[in-house]
Amino acid sequence: MTAGGSVTSGLREAGLLHSAALIGGRWVDADDGGSFGVVDPANGQELGRVARCGPAETRRAIEAAEAAQPAWRARTAKERARILRAWADLLSAHEDDLARLLTLEQGKPLAESRAEIAYGAAFFEWFGEQAKRLDGEVVPPHHADKRVLVTREPVGVTGGITPWNFPVAMPARKAAPALAAGCAMVLKPAEQTPLSALAVAELGVRAGLPPGVFNVVTGDAEDAPLIGEELTGNPTVRKVGFTGSTAVGKLLMAQCAPQVTRISLELGGNAPFIVFDDADLEAAIAGALICKFRNSGQTCISANRILVQDRIHDDFVDGLVKAASELPVGNGLDPDTRVGPLIDRQGYEKVADHVADARERGADVLLGGESHALGGTFWQPTVLSGVDETMAMSHDETFGPVAGVRRFRTEDEAITVANSTRYGLASYFYARDVARVWRVSEALEFGIVGVNTGLISTEIAPFGGYKESGLGREGSQHGIDDWVELKYHCLGEIE
Fold this sequence. Notes:
Blueprint: H1 5-8, E1 21-23, E2 26-28, E3 35-39, E4 46-51, H2 55-74, H3 77-93, H4 95-106, H5 110-131, E5 137-139, E6 147-154, E7 157-161, H6 169-181, E8 185-188, H7 194-207, E9 214-216, H8 224-233, E10 237-243, H9 246-256, E11 262-266, E12 271-275, H10 281-293, E13 303-309, H11 310-325, H12 345-360, E14 364-367, E15 382-385, E16 402-408, H13 411-419, E17 423-424, E18 426-430, H14 434-443, E19 448-451, E20 466-467, E21 470-471, E22 484-491
Parallel strand pairs: 7-8, 7-10, 8-9, 10-11, 12-13, 12-18, 13-16, 15-16, 18-19
Antiparallel strand pairs: 1-2, 3-4, 5-6, 6-22, 11-21, 14-15, 17-20
């Protein structure tokens, strides 16, 4: 590929770097030879150029998946599991290269990139094991001369559309359950971060994936809607998995409707982070710090509304300001960096707008609140107090290193405020009273509840949300359910 020296010079194995799409086991350029640039958000420099594909290339990828589907489905679960496990091992073996590549195109600190590689590998390992557990049922018959069986079968050719904030983990969370179930897939990674997805695909080929079982089609921002329309509208595709904004998720869902194509959606969030007055204050501050500032706040499960009870409010805010002020900001390749750049100018402008709106409506900026001295898309770690429901950051994801704190008096008030959102993905609270832990956990209308922890993601638990945060679950024993069909067999004339 045409790549800057900053990419190739730091990789132990240049073979992980691809500029072409993967279709039917072959690395191919766009039909018209077009390409688009991938930019390092830390300095604005172009890292390289990647094939700019569109509907025609996507159709061929779907056809390749369709051709590969019968043989992949026919393989034993143990054979598919062996390949997925090999894929996981290869991700682990190439952790340093993958982490560097991820940091270059996404911006997050190297330590977080390494953690993401391990997280992605864990999904291939987990679902390889789950492939061998796709059990059916023998149901007590309704007549003496009949037998009733229920089996789980792969849904067929699938599509995956993944975001830029976790460019290794999200393709893994889509591909691992689909392939484990016996489905072939066409993946469209985000235009900001295609290099990581292509590197993951390269390792899948090395792990032994047959041609066409896993395909990657790359395209830029203008191409994405056209590729999405092909994935949702092509009758060969039986299921689409998407992670991204609620607005785009709704559009894809509407596009799936005419064909009744199944879709799972992991969409936006507006996570409350509640600190009750019986909480371990130091633990709550540490939890808020990592939950809010990890990946520069660019996660769908970031603490977006921090609610702190009256009696400890001031102490919590003072502690959070001190802790956030000590976070080193810089290029993610610097091992000391804890907060990297925002992904692009659009993300930067949203953060700036949210802070300006909060200021205008009466919030106090206690730390940061402005562009960082590094310039570009770097933003200072920011803490605001006096945030209320009139402010934009109380309703929409800020997706930046900005912590807005709101005071509350009673448990009922905290629950009411926490639930007053159209989203329902992640929520958090800190408390030590056992009765309160149960009451609040049950009252929160969110698919994920973190109790006395700010880190909740794991392959062994179901990840997904209520309300407008999506449909379906990823991870856990339930994560494979969206990629299979139930078939009922009724056998007659047994007597």
